[in-house]
Structures are given as structure tokens and as C-alpha cells.
Amino acid sequence: xxxxxxxxxxxxxxxALPVDSEHKATEFRLFSVAAPHMRAFHLSWVSFFAxxxxxxxxxxxxxxxxxxxxxxxTDIGNAGIAAVSGAVFARVAMGTACDLFGPRxxxxxxxxxxxxxxxxTAIANSxxxxxxxxxxxxxxxxxxxxxxxxxxxxxSSKVVGTANGIAGGWGNLGGGATQLIMPLVFSxxxxxxxTKFTAWRIAFLVPALFQxxxxxxxxxxxxxxxxxxxxxxxxxxxxxxxxxxxxxxHAITNYRGWILALTYGYCFGVELTIDNIIAQYFYDxxxxxxxxxxxxxxxxxxxxxxxxxxxxxxxxxxxKRYGMRGRLWALWIVxxxxxxxxxxxxxxxxxSVSIAVMIxxxxxxxxxxxxxxxxxxxxxxRSLGIISGMTGGGGNVGxxxxxxxxxxxxxxxxxxxxxxxxxxxxxxxxxxxLIYFPQWGGMFCGPSSKGTTExxxxxxxxxxxxxxxxxxxxxxxxxxxxxxxxxxxVGSAPTPANGTPSTYV
Length: 505
Prior knowledge:
InterPro entries: MFS, MFS_dom, MFS_trans_sf, NO3_transporter, NO3_transporter_NarK/NarU-like
Number of domains: 1
CATH class: Mainly Alpha
Transmembrane segments: 45-64, 76-93, 105-124, 131-150, 170-190, 202-221, 328-349, 355-379, 386-406, 418-437
Pfam family, one: MFS_1
Domain Major facilitator superfamily (MFS) profile: 40-440
Structural class: mainly alpha
Radius of gyration: 23 Å
Protein name: Nitrate/nitrite transporter
Strand order of the largest sheet: 1-2
Number of strands: 2
CATH superfamily: MFS general substrate transporter like domains
CATH topology: Growth Hormone, Chain: A
Number of helices: 23
Helix content: 55-70%
């Protein structure tokens, strides 16, 4: 048998990957499709990718759609805002649904429910109808929350940043891939014989069908937790059905979640904003053709292939060496650099230099997204879903506010709006310095002198009556497994001799 940081050998044999006492995988094997850990990983990122493709299928075809529907600059700006505003509350709701019903059912349901809006884009015939289909399609971006919740439920603290970063990053690839996919599909349909005003409508059937199929795949092939689905575990008594009021209370009273929601608004929110404006920006400012503008815009989103995963991996590396304090420092540095390059993007006037700066900017701003969700799983064990939803929703709020302030109407030129957006990134990122975990410390302070432990922090989410019923045991196991956030200085906080139960099963 293994020691307290792992599961017994008999339990290990039940899974293709090594697991800890919560049966979360302690290794991440990218090219494996083993159930339940790696299968869920691939299902989640593919589904999120499909939703991203659907949500941002319109921007690369906007010059055509604009002419067909007689859209003004304000109409286009409002539709872009609608596409990202729909997910603001949907993401918080998705977090709650994950806590109560599990990520598999929550993700499959939302993906399937929003698919009809993508189909209906093909019949939009006015600015109002175009805005509405983009608004309802944007709800599907809330599947990001279920993706991050799912990865945090299946992978241990040692690799959770990596799992979250790659799943989120590869899902976000849809924002870049659609810049290539939609113009290509449009051209193929037009070459077959359709007029350009008919071709763009038929093209939307491709992302709609892709999204529908991904919903069924998650429902029939996915699994919520290493030991089964929520409904099954609730029925058997192996998982307690938690109280919504308690989950909600412990989420909204944890200030760390609010700070991460705000700072995420100026990394992921900026990414959403760029996805909406960048193709048209290069098309209008540098007079490139539609296909070229699409390729340039795609390079921004396609950087997610390695940038957001790189942020998650960096978070785990810093966590292993320096603990939670290392994760916080890495997030602040990377996101601040993203703000600096965003300012430069709005200042440079050369096409080639703009492309180079945009790519560097994309790497830093997307890596910051991965670094953020290397921290989120540790904010709360009991309210993980809502904290994830709050943070994810913050990304959409940031996108909405940024587009309303800087890119709606003619108050600012697009290049000026990009520069001011960079200033906002730097200012909001300063708040990371206020995040403090008493058991691990913050950017400038070490752990509490009171000797606070991981058990003290996570057990604070349960009252004495709940502890007597034993429904806090999952948090106890998580407390033990999260001691790695002390970094190499394992002695940075004491561990009570009887503070954590035996993990032998």
C-alpha cells in the first residue's frame, strides 16, 4: 500500500492512471483516452471547442453578413456584445448546476439547448434577429465552467493546472479555428453554385451540427467523478447531496473568487473582445482581403494550442517549487506583460509589426487564463462550481464592458480602444496582490503566524452538525492532497497529527 498521499494499490488498479486518495489522477497523459479521467478531458475540450466555433462563426463572415443585412457599425458592435453577454449569468448558473447535478449533465444539456440558435442564424434577416441568435448562441460559452469544474474534479493538485489549461486552451482554439473554418466553408459552398448571400447562411449548418453531436457524446460517454455519476453516487449514498444555500454562501463570501473574477475579465474577457474585432480591424485598417484578415485573426485564437496550456503547466511548475505564492506571482507577471503588448498593438501602424505584436500579446493574455485556473480550484472545495462560474462569468463581464466602452460606435478608433484596453489589463491585474491564503500566504506575505493549516481553511466551510454527519470527508481528503501548495518549504505550516483521516480504502 501507498502512504497518505496516494490511494492503495488495490484502488490504483481500478484506474488506468495513478490516483490520490480522492481517486483523482496524479498524472496527465495527453494521448490517452482511458475512462474516466482522460476520456472526460477529451470530451470536455472538444465540446467547448464546438461551442466556441459556433459563438464566433459570424465575425470572419461579417463583411458579407454586413452587406446582406445592412448592418451599421453600431449593429455589429451590439451583436458582438450580445454574443459574450449571454454567458455572464449562464456561467454562474452553470457553476451551480455542476455543484448540484454534475458537469456531465450540465454541459450536455446546455450544449444541446443552445444548438438551435446556431441553426437559426441561417434564417436571420435583420439586425435584431442577428443580435438575438448571437445572444442565445453565446450562452454555450458557459460550457467553459463545466470543463474547468470537470478537470478539477478528476485531476489532483499536482496536475490540475495542466489539465485545466489544456482543456480550456484547446477549447478556446475554436475562436481561432472558426476564423479559418467559416471562410473556407463559405468559399466551398459558393464554388458549388450558391450566391454569397446564400452561402454564408448554409455555412452555419456546419458548426450547428458539430455542437449537437458533441452534446450527445458528453451525455453518453462521459462520467462526472472517478467513482461514477452524481445521480448514481447520490442514490448509493457515496456522495452527499449538498445544500444550494450553503454552496452559494461560501462562494459569495470568499473575496478571492471576486478578485479572480475581475482579473479574469481582463485576460479571457480581452480574448473574447479580440475574437470579435480583430478580423474586421485588419480588414479595415490595413486593407487586406477577407481571406487574409481571417488567417491573421485565426493566428490569435490558434495560439491557444500552446499558450493557455503553457500557462496551466507554468502554474503547476511554480506551485511545485514555490507553492501557491509562486502561482500568484506567475499570474501577475504574465498578465501584466499581456497588458503591455496590448498597448503596443494599438500603437504600431505597420501590418507586419502589428501581426508580430498581436501574436506575442495573444501568448501572454491566453497564458494568464491558464494561470488563473491553476489557482481557482484551491479557493473553495465545497463551492468549486460557483467559484469557477463566478470567475468564468467575470471573463464575459470584462468582454462586455470593454466592448461597450471602447468598441461600440465611433467614440474611439479601434486602435485607440485596443491601447486603452491594455491599460485596463495592467490596472486590474494589480488586485492579484490582495489574494492571501492563511495556510500558504500571498505574493508578499508568508503563511499566517497563527499556524493555520489546510484543514482549518477547508473545514471552515462546514458547520459542526455537518461534520458530525461525516459529509465533510471529501474536503478532508482535499486538504491533505493540497499540502503540495506549500511548495518545497513543506514546513511552512504545521499539520496536526490527527488532522487528516487515513486515506486507506
